[in-house]
Amino acid sequence: MNPLTIGLVQQTCNADRTANIDKSMAGIRAAAAKGAQLVVLQELHTTLYFCQSEETACFDLAESIPGPSTAQFSAIAKELGVVLVISLFEKRAAGLYHNTAVVLEADGTIAGTYRKMHIPDDPGYYEKFYFTPGDLGFTPIDTSVGRLGVLVCWDQWYPEAARLMALAGAEILIYPTAIGWDPRDEAAEQERQREAWITVQRGHAVANGLHVVAVNRCGFEAAPDHGPGSQFWGSSFVAGPQGEILAEAGRSDEDVLVTTIDRQRSEDVRRIWPFLRDRRIEAFVDLTRRYRD
Q: Regarding the domain delimited by 3-288, which CATH topology (the fold level of the hierarchy) does it fall under?
């Protein structure tokens, strides 16, 4: 048994940055009080999900790393002695912005960053307007609780991203997320989307023999351009290395989900399902092509 207790903070957000951060801080404290050694926050948790429209004024929400948010969250990481995964709108330079996850060590230092690689551009998710694709690659971040394969939201649909993290020695796959329904979709379509989101990530767990931690926001956020808005579906979860659901939050309510995983399970599962051993890497060269015409 090699236990690790993980906290997931699923929350609503509004236009008040201070209130959002206070809510995240309260969630971190609640998770730590339940024994969490690693706490993961959702995507862009200090703000509304501003990518529902294209507004140049929203670039004012971005901040440097290190910066105000890393200072605040570093302080609570050090105070509580927990490793934190936070998600920020990074201003790298004038006109150059990223959707960036920051991993804070239990002593408050920055252990590493990951810049979101896959950037969507869909109705209600106009992220290409705001975010430059990441340039740090799929590189795990070493911490006192293990080597973390941190990815962000849209990355979770790509098995290649999970695989490359696994091949670089990631011990856990972590996905801060902001995904929801278009309220105009019929209930059956909404459910298919949520189930697909859960299923593909459980598949990453199975294919790589790793635990997966997915933390999604919840609640309705109106669109500033009078569009339909987005109903974020929550459902934050932890899956084991055979895809088994170990813990799952509700679809609509805020929650601090805490669960303990056994990291030895990855070793045990990979011994009976040695997918990395049996990969035919010499036949995979075409994966670097956009499409095989």
A: Nitrilase/N-carbamoyl-D-aminoacid amidohydrolase (3.60.110)
